[in-house]
């Protein structure tokens, strides 16, 4: 298999794919695929409950938080959050970083008042950086503060949680969930689409504080989009994304075998530092993001001579290093090094970068 640096859908650990392959036709001797298993059967319920139990263990999720496995994408959550939390006359704070938070803000504005706070800027060297929290002017009347913990496209990530709005933070953690420990109690709600660190696309995990359900305004919200309803039905108000849930369960087991998110975090920092250290000492490559704001999941890299990009990508492909092209809105190169990317994969990329520079 190639080393896959795709931002999403992203690489999945080979061992997990192999296990899914082994079980594909005949799940645990049952005589059919897990895809063909009725979702109301005790067997499927066990799959669902085990997935939830292991996710709780991995992220240390307190019992007053509900875990929901929902249909659809993170973008659905852009609307679901304001639909559930806010009446049209209520307010929320949104931190604007780049593409994903802009999409999210546009949705929220359709439902309520949104105070948008700029969270990103260029520093004096022209590098992108997060604006420090003490410069934010948030609206204290906001019911929550929404932020994207890792902005996948440009490769910017929060090193620590915002301290204001503790307990009332809402976060899009699509591209860094399960890559590091999280202090869940600072959050009202966390959501993440599956296709980076959890499994195949089409399923989204939501972690939400249960007592907030009483404060939600769901009268006009479609039933399937009401968090309290999905929770009351144990993530199964209708046929759930059953294969996605099963697959997520396999990934959660794999993560526990690797030592959990604490170990993954150490490994992820190691991989990212290897790559940034190499880029920083080079004059051929550089990072468009300032130190202190850099993502350890999505490493943006630019070539001093942009005209060499295509040649770089073609050479990388020949060495089985795939999906290194940056997002169309940002350009450059991007190495997404989620949990499934090995240290060996990052070393192979660095070796190729050295060779490319030498043998031009
Ligand atoms: N938020 C972030 C941070 C993302 O990286 C992405 C997708 O890459 C999304 C939201 C949107 O996800 P989806 O395509 O599942 O709606």
UniProtKB/TrEMBL annotation:
EC number(s) from the headed UniProt entry: 2.6.1.52
Q: Where N6-(pyridoxal phosphate)lysine occurs, residue numbers? A: 196
Residues that coordinate or bind pyridoxal 5'-phosphate:
74-75, 100, 152, 172, 195, 238-239
Q: Look up keyword Transmembrane and say if it applies.
A: no
EC main class here is: transferase
Q: Does the keyword S-adenosyl-L-methionine apply?
A: no
GO MF, any single term: pyridoxal phosphate binding
**Which UniProt keywords are listed?**
Amino-acid biosynthesis, Aminotransferase, Cytoplasm, Pyridoxal phosphate, Pyridoxine biosynthesis, Serine biosynthesis, Transferase
Question: In which pathway is this protein known to take part?
Answer: Amino-acid biosynthesis; L-serine biosynthesis; L-serine from 3-phospho-D-glycerate: step 2/3; Cofactor biosynthesis; pyridoxine 5'-phosphate biosynthesis; pyridoxine 5'-phosphate from D-erythrose 4-phosphate: step 3/5
* Pfam families in the record: Aminotran_5 (PF00266)
Please tell me where L-glutamate binds in this chain: 40
Manner of cofactor binding, per the entry note: Binds 1 pyridoxal phosphate per subunit.
- For this entry, list what GO says about its biological process: L-serine biosynthetic process; pyridoxine biosynthetic process
Q: Cofactor(s) for this protein?
A: pyridoxal 5'-phosphate
Task: Give start and end of each Aminotransferase class V domain.
Answer: 3-349
* Localisation per UniProt entry: Cytoplasm
Subunit organization? Homodimer.
Q: Which family does it belong to?
A: Belongs to the class-V pyridoxal-phosphate-dependent aminotransferase family. SerC subfamily.
Q: What name appears for this protein in its UniProt entry?
A: Phosphoserine aminotransferase
Query: What's the source species for this entry?
Result: Kangiella sediminilitoris
């Amino acid at each position: 298999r190639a080393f896959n640096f795709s931002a999403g859908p992203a690489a999945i650990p080979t061992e997990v794919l192999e296990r899914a392959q082994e079980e594909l036709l005949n799940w645990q001797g049952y005589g059919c695929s897990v895809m063909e298993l009725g979702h109301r059967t005790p067997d499927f319920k066990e799959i669902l409950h085990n997935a939830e139990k292991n996710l709780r263990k991995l992220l240390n999720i307190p019992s007053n938080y509900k875990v929901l496995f929902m249909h659809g994408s993170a973008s659905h959550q852009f609307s679901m959050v304001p639909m559930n939390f806010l009446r049209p006359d209520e307010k929320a704070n949104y931190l604007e970083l780049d593409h994903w938070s802009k999409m999210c803000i546009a949705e929220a504005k359709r439902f309520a008042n949104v105070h948008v706070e700029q969270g990103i800027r260029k520093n004096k060297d022209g590098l992108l950086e997060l604006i420090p929290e003490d410069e934010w002017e948030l609206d204290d009347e906001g019911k929550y503060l929404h932020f994207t913990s890792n902005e996948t496209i440009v490769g910017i990530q929060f090193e620590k949680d915002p301290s204001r709005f503790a307990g009332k933070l809402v976060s899009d953690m699509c591209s860094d969930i399960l890559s590091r420990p999280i202090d869940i109690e600072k959050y009202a709600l966390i959501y993440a689409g599956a296709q980076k660190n959890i499994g195949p696309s089409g399923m989204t995990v939501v972690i939400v504080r249960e007592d907030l359900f009483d404060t939600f305004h769901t009268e006009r919200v479609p039933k399937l989009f009401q968090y309290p309803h999905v929770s009351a039905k144990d993530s199964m108000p209708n046929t759930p994304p059953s294969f996605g849930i099963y697959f997520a369960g396999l990934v959660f087991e794999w993560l526990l075998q690797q030592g959990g998110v604490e170990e993954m975090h150490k490994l992820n920092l190691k991989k990212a530092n290897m790559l940034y250290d190499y880029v920083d000492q080079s004059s051929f490559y550089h990072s468009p993001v300032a130190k202190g704001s850099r993502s350890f999941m999505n490493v943006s890299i630019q070539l001093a001579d942009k005209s060499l990009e295509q040649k770089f990508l073609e050479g990388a492909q020949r060495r089985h290093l795939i999906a290194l092209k940056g997002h169309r809105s940002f350009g450059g190169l991007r190495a997404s090094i989620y949990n499934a990317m090995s240290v060996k994969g990052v070393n192979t990329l660095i070796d190729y970068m050295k060779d490319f520079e030498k043998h031009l």
